[in-house]
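User: I'm putting together a teaching handout on how sequence relates to shape, and I'd like one worked example. Could you take 1D-myo-inositol 2-acetamido-2-deoxy-alpha-D-glucopyranoside deacetylase from Virgisporangium aliadipatigenens, show the sequence you're using, and then write out its predicted structure as tokens right after it?

Assistant: Happy to. First the sequence, then the structure tokens directly below it.
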Amino acid sequence: MSSPRTERSILFVHAHPDDEAISTGATMALYAAAGARVTLVTCTLGEEGEIHVPAYAGLASDAADQLGGYRIAELKEACTALGVTDHRFLGGAGRYRDSGMMGWETNLRPRAFWQADLDEAAGMLVDVMRETRPQVVVTYDEIGFYGHPDHIQAHRVTMRAVELAAAEGIAPAKVYWTAVPYSVLEAGIGEFADTEGNPFEGLTSPDDLPFGTPDKEIAARVDGHEFADQKVAAMLAHATQISPNSWLMTIAGNFGAEFMGVEFYELAVGERGPGGGPNGWEADLFAGLVI
């Protein structure tokens, strides 16, 4: 049975634990603090994640294969940091396994999310939509932002779920895809040039990167700089994946809230609401909606 839309409700669909913090953490914290219903659906446990902290190496998939279970606790801590109380794994914890990077043999495992039946997985997401009735849904673009199979599959599942929800008359009014404008990447290539662990080392143009969105295709710029510290805390909660000495933390320390607290989105479904600034970007993902 569907619940009525009685409050602002936003649904984030991510592939692995830590994706929510890195790409949408400030946005999630902002809306949670504002009293909106914020729901996070994570599609896998991240069992194939690369462990950057030697103390946790024994959890790896080629060792004890306990990383996924460990990351459940990391995700819970991250959600607490963001103020998010409604988190679910798609189909339940462990229903789908991390597929690993594109081309790995792990892509072919029967439980790999990359192998998931699209309508079955989308149906599980529709179940969440029936309950939470989001006006806004956030996920990745067609290439999963940077080409990871689970990110691509999260995109496919989410967009199929939106179609199924529309057939029931409960579709979200808007669907956004995470994005980074070319202008931000261009600035980053210059700003980070002399930093240790520079993620843009050797690059001279955003065209050299496997991600990035032309500024004209950006619809929203969410300024959550007041929640940058919460985003950083959420990222650090994923201790197996993000160490305090990682390039992300170095950049956070050097460039602060403007880097960590501002997040961008492309509008895939729905009408663009009123915006501002030189680009007319929305400042609110609910812009233009009457709730």
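A couple of points you could highlight for students: The mean pLDDT is 91. Helices lie at 19-33, 67-82, 118-132, 149-168, 182-191, 228-237, 247-261.
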